[in-house]
Every structure is written in structure tokens, then in C-alpha cells.
């Protein structure tokens, strides 16, 4: 959280539907902060139980499929009936990317750490670190968060990326809506992430999600606006803005809507 002058309203309305910010409790250093929507946003409801765990019989009888991942061609294995819970993999198992004799799917652009999380979700409906319910506070938390890195090194990016953002984007590719919701919920609980990592992850999100995505993109827009006093002093932000991209036009629109909201709150009877 950041220390900043209190405003009468922290809300802004845009097509991304970002919500109000809560009052910051303490200051963080300029280079790092909490990335989330706020702990109260989208974390009080448990992960969906729509998908059930595979039965022992199905995993024993289903054929094993090998997945060749990334430029280094790391190998993973999964049961065909489990993989086919993803529309992408179901199509791949029956399409041109599937070598029927070897039962092999090639994913040269995927990151091994991300694919590992996707497989874990397909089997367990969660991925490490797990999302757990704090009964005393009635909130959801990341289990042993201090033991896990929030970022990954992706072969397509020079610097680190937020793991949950990469998982969200891959989940969108694989048609796993529940995994998208889970990844966004977990990202909302991350903290102490550098400005440069946030911006790199936001750019990744814009490249790897469709234009009508209102969740992950809106998450980043809301975050930058709430933490604007830090971002406006950041050299990383200056460099990113000079490079441009749709992210910054959307940010401009969101900032304008935020200002309009503040003026409406301050002058409720003005026209």
C-alpha cells in the first residue's frame, strides 16, 4: 500500500469496472507494493467446485500424453481424459498438433512453470501455492506465500513476470475459465512487487488477452491509478509510456473517468 493524500473517493468507472480503493494503512518503498485488487475483492468466495477430481479408475485407464514445452523442450505427462477438460487440449489431441503414434503435443511457446501449474489445476482444481480459507478472518489467503516466488522467468521476456498473470493468459488460451478466476484471485493477494515487474506483466497481459478482457486488464489499470504517486516517479513507467501501446490509451481513459468520478463526488449537484 502507499501513503498518499486522502481523497473523497478512490473509485473510477470505466468499461473495466474497477472498484473503489480502500484507505492505505501504511507506506511501502517506491519500488514495491501490493498488486491486488484489495483483499476484499474477489477473495471471499471459494474456488469453484464445478470441476470434480478424476477418479482412480479413469486415470488408470486413460492413455498418457506427453507435452513438449518451451524452447528447451521440457517433457510433461498427463492423462488424456484429464487434458481434454481443456477445449484447447481436446482439440490438440484430435488435430494437427497431435502425433497419434507418440501421443505427443508440442507447446514451443509455453513456459514450463506455467504449464506445470495448468496441469496441477486440471488434476487438483488448484495450483501451488494453494488458496486457503482463513476461518477466523473469513478471508482467502495464499498458503505459505513466503516460501514461493511470485514471479517467473519467461523465455520471451527479458525480466521477471508475475506468475499468476502468465497463468491467467495461458488459461485463457486453453479455455479454462475457472483457472482464470483462480489466478486473478491469487494475484490480488500478492505484495511487494516492483514497478518494473508490474509494468512488464501488464504489457504481457495486454499482448496475450483479447481486447474484450475486462478482468486482468482492468486489474492493472486500477492498480496503476490507485498507486499513481509511485508510478509517476518511476523511470520504468516513463520508459514504458515512451514505448506506448494500447495499455496507455486505456489508462488515459480510465484516469479521465476517475477524475470525472471525483468531480461528481465533490459536486453532487453540479451539471
TrEMBL record:
Cross-referenced PROSITE patterns: BTB
UniProt feature, compositional bias: Polar residues: 48-58
Pfam entry (one): BTB
InterPro entries in the record: BTB/POZ_dom (IPR000210), SKP1/BTB/POZ_sf (IPR011333)
Chain ranges of the BTB domain: 65-123
Stretches the record annotates as Disordered: 1-58
PANTHER family according to UniProt: BTB DOMAIN-CONTAINING PROTEIN, BTB DOMAIN-CONTAINING PROTEIN-RELATED
Protein's UniProt name: BTB domain-containing protein
Amino acid at each position: 500500500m502507499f501513503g498518499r493524500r486522502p481523497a473523497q473517493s478512490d473509485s473510477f468507472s470505466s468499461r473495466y469496472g474497477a472498484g473503489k480503493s480502500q484507505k492505505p494503512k501504511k507506506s511501502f518503498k517506491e519500488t514495491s507494493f501490493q498488486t491486488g485488487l484489495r483483499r476484499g475483492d474477489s477473495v471471499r468466495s471459494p474456488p469453484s467446485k464445478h470441476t470434480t477430481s478424476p477418479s482412480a479408475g479413469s486415470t488408470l485407464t486413460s492413455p498418457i500424453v506427453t507435452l513438449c514445452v518451451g524452447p528447451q523442450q521440457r517433457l510433461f505427462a498427463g492423462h488424456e481424459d484429464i487434458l481434454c477438460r481443456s477445449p484447447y487440449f481436446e482439440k490438440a489431441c484430435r488435430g494437427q498438433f497431435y502425433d497419434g503414434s507418440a501421443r505427443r503435443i508440442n507447446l514451443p511457446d509455453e513456459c514450463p512453470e506455467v504449464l506445470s501449474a495448468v496441469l496441477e489445476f486440471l488434476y487438483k482444481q488448484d495450483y501451488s501455492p494453494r488458496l486457503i480459507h482463513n476461518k477466523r478472518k473469513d478471508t482467502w489467503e495464499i498458503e505459505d506465500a513466503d516460501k514461493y516466488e511470485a514471479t517467473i522467468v519467461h523465455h520471451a521476456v527479458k525480466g521477471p513476470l508475475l506468475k499468476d498473470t502468465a497463468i491467467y493468459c495461458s488459461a485463457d488460451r486453453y479455455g479454462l475459465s475457472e483457472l482464470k478466476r483462480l489466478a486473478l484471485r491469487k494475484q490480488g493477494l500478492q505484495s511487494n512487487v516492483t514497478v518494473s515487474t508490474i509494468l512488464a506483466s501488464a504489457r504481457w497481459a495486454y499482448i496475450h488477452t483479447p481486447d474484450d478482457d475486462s478482468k486482468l486488464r482492468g486489474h492493472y489499470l486500477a492498480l496503476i491509478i490507485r498507486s499513481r504517486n509511485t508510478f509517476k516517479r518511476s523511470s520504468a513507467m516513463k520508459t514504458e509510456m515512451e514505448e506506448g501501446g494500447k495499455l496507455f490509451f486505456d489508462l488515459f481513459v480510465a484516469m479521465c473517468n476517475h477524475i470525472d468520478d471525483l468531480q461528481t463526488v465533490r459536486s453532487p449537484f453540479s451539471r
